[in-house]
Specification:
Strands 2, 4, 5, 6, 9, 10 and 11 form a 7-stranded mixed beta sheet that branches. Strands 1-3-8-7 form a 4-stranded antiparallel beta sheet, with no helix packed on it. The protein contains no helices and 11 strands. By secondary structure, the protein is mostly beta strands. A hairpin with a 4-residue loop joins strand 7 and strand 8 (about 75-80).
Length: about 120
């Protein structure tokens, strides 16, 4: 059974940092793109960042320079380091894996999803 499990969410003050991790099990995702998305209450699920199977990265404009995505294929994990957090970063953050190895900002191009982890940034 394929599973993606996020961890590391929580409550932090504006300007603080959080480190989200996503552990994959049930299969290897070394040839998949791994992405992070987020969804705030009443809003659509938005792209945050993606890392290609070869390590190339892409970010949403709203998080460039503040968030960093990385992956460890040996451990089947992907990490989202979030710095300089803002209240508008508050959302449920989801990890996803897509068969397109170069990734996408479109959520419908991802095949596997985690349950999500809540990130709340207070002002």
């Amino acid at each position: 059974q394929v599973q993606l499990a996020e961890s590391g969410g929580g409550l932090v003050q504006a300007g603080g940092s959080l480190r989200l991790s996503c552990a994959a099990s049930g299969r290897t995702f070394s040839r998949h793109a791994m992405g992070w998305f987020r969804q705030a209450p009443g809003k659509e699920r938005d792209f945050v960042a993606v890392i290609h199977w070869s390590g190339g990265k892409r970010y949403a404009d709203s998080v460039k320079g503040r968030f960093t995505i990385s992956r460890d294929n040996a451990k089947n994990t992907v990490v989202l380091q979030m710095n300089s957090l803002k209240p508008e970063d508050t959302a449920v953050y989801y990890c996803a894996a897509g068969a397109n190895p170069y990734g996408s900002s479109r959520s419908n191009e991802y095949d596997y999803w985690g349950q999500g982890t809540q990130v709340t940034v207070s002002s």
